[in-house]
Write the structure tokens for this entry.
Amino acid sequence: MIEDFSQIKDLFDAPTWLLVLFGLFNIVGWLVCLIMLYVVPHKRGPESATGWLLFCFFFPYLGALFFVLIGNPKLPLERRQLQRTINTFMAERVEERAKNPIYARALVHNLDARQEPIARLVERLGGLPVFGANQVELLSDYTATIDRIVADIDSSNKYVHLLYYIFADDEHGRKVEAALVRAAKRGVVCRVLYDALGNLSYVGKVHERLEAAGVVVHRILPLKLFGRQRRRPDLRNHRKIAVIDGLVGYTGSQNLTDPQYKPDVIYEELVARVRGPAVIQLNMIFLADWYSETDIRVSSEEAAPHGIPSFEGDIACQVLPSGPAYDTDNIPALFTSLLYTAQRYAVLTTPYFIPDAPLLHALEHAAIRGVEVHLIVSAQGDQFLVSHAQRSYYEEMLESGIHIHLVREPTFIHAKHLSIDDDISVVGSSNFDVRSFRLNLEIVLLSYSSKVVAAQRRIEQSYFARSDELLLEEWLQRSRFQQFVDNTCRLLSALL
């Protein structure tokens, strides 16, 4: 029991240093918040900036730490400067090719009034023009696609270039590995790039065996947390490219792995097999990445097509790369522009859907002005944060008239493609989410062709047949807790 006021005084005097420390802690915390208020919004979208600022105001020290680690969505300055140099080099090579009569006649100058602005945009962003005389085949059978790549490698005479996010040590990956070994034994130059993080669990196995067989193998973007080359660990090369002799090329969503590389999930993909001038563009992107990772420049003569390229096709194509080494967000700019050009029909297929504000507005505006807009996603996602974040967009999309199709389990739609009306197709590695838009190196192939779109529509129709369309009345019945989880994940996804 307290007997006099001196005892009360002692109670307050004893923890004085704690009070001072607490005060300093709060003052520094507010200073951190003020600094972040200045730093965070710089060249950052409003949703991302809002997410980071909320995080920092509630948890200033933790927020500042995470921002230092993963707050910068760009590669180091040296890598961005190197990309500018590569872009200039690629533009010069394209100009040289255009002077060659064989390639000059393949340049397209007669796109229609709606396609022409898109082609100019893509060339401005990626530096690659539209070439005609291509053949494009869409492949959706997982194992058959791997077998086609293997067959083309087995027919190679000069070089094989592979760039994949995952090159797995499993049945399908080993098929490609065996084909590379056979090619290397024949004297074919085989170059392989794989993402350091995406292939982390297989890195020692596949790499060592391929090197022992004479294949030249390099990791892409190895983890560097310190020094001038420090970068956030989740900046990844997500591209999928195969080029054989400069005559045949592949790009799309499929990695070199089994269709069930995650338990109880069957992955479905879409890959474009290309012959013609567009193969040269795919090869240029591979060689740019090769140079970025190895500092080794492959000569134009060595990388030229072995033999006479097939210019027997009738499809106009264009390749667009994107990634954190570019000054602009290339692929979201393309997707948004395409949706504003849509007049009748637009179908988006993606495993992960977290759009930025311009893309979301473009989708909604298209539906409001009468375009039939369809979004195809899987009923059950394979990533908790992303699957719940994308659900937070469904209500406003349904209200605007967008049709959402949920493909039933056990299928997981890993394909990434977009079709506009009946004459523009986009197939590639890019998801419709902020990670692909800003953090990953991606690639897409545009085909200005009713033939390709018709083939793509048949694949989309197969998705429709195995899906349930989400209805607004049903969606509004979900619980408050589900809404809370979805909205929280949406907020967290903005930190990307």
User: Anything to note?
Assistant: The chain has a mean pLDDT of 86. The chain is about 45% helix and 20% strand.
